[in-house]
Amino acid sequence: MRVTTFALAGFLAIAASAVMAETPAQQVQQDNSNIHQLNTDIRNNEADVNKDSADARHDQADIDRDRLDRNADQAREDRDLAKGDIKGADYWNRQRKDENAEISHDKKDLAHSRLDVHNAKSRLAKDVKVRNHDVAKRNRAASKI
After folding, report:
1. What is the mean pLDDT of residues 16-25?
2. Range of the domain at 138
3. I want to staple 73 with a disulfide (CB 3.0 to 4.6 A). Which of 1, 32, 50, 95 is the partner?
4. Within a domain: residue 113?
5. Total structural domains in the chain?
């Protein structure tokens, strides 16, 4: 009795899964929809990578510009000290310290931008991998039609 109950339950489970299974045409249609969405995500991720990379380049340019200004302020301070102009040297020293603070802030921005680039590239790679898997699955289902 037990064996027939288990056998009957197993048979019904297999039959139910066969009835609920999608036809290859339905599977291809579903996979095409998934692939379409993944392509949209990939384009968006590529745009994020480009935007974040541009932000990182902009941050690096800010750092370079601030370093040039800081070095120029140091040269002016040294020149004023050589002339004996203590007041002028103090002014350029304060300017240089302000530039150092700007550089520090820009370095933090650059670190965040680089992290954003890394995360966007990771999302992009993941979406491409999933899309490629779905394309292969769709092609297998399409070959059965």
Report:
1. 61
2. 25-74+103-143
3. 95
4. yes
5. 1
Burial 81-108 (b: 16+ CB within 10 A, else e): eeeeeeeebeebbebbeebeebbeebee
Q: Are 44 and 120 in contact (CB under 8 A)?
A: no
Distances (CA, A) of 69 to 20, 88, 97, 119, 139: 71, 16, 11, 33, 59
What local confidence, expressed as pLDDT, does residue 29 receive? 86
| Domain membership flag for residue 16 | no
Q: Would the pTM of this model clear 0.90, i.e. be above it?
A: no
Q: What percent helix, strand, coil does the chain show, rounded to 5? A: 95, 0, 5
**CA–CA separation, 80 vs 88, rounded Å?**
6
CA atoms lying within 13 Å on the CB side of residue 43: 5
10 found inside a domain: no
Backbone angles phi, psi at 39, to 5 degrees: -60, -40
Asked whether the predicted pLDDT for residue 11 surpasses 70, the reply is no
Q: What is the dihedral of CA 44, 50, 51, 55, to 10 degrees?
A: 160
Retrieve residue 16's tokens: 């139910």
**Whether pLDDT at 102 is above 80:** yes
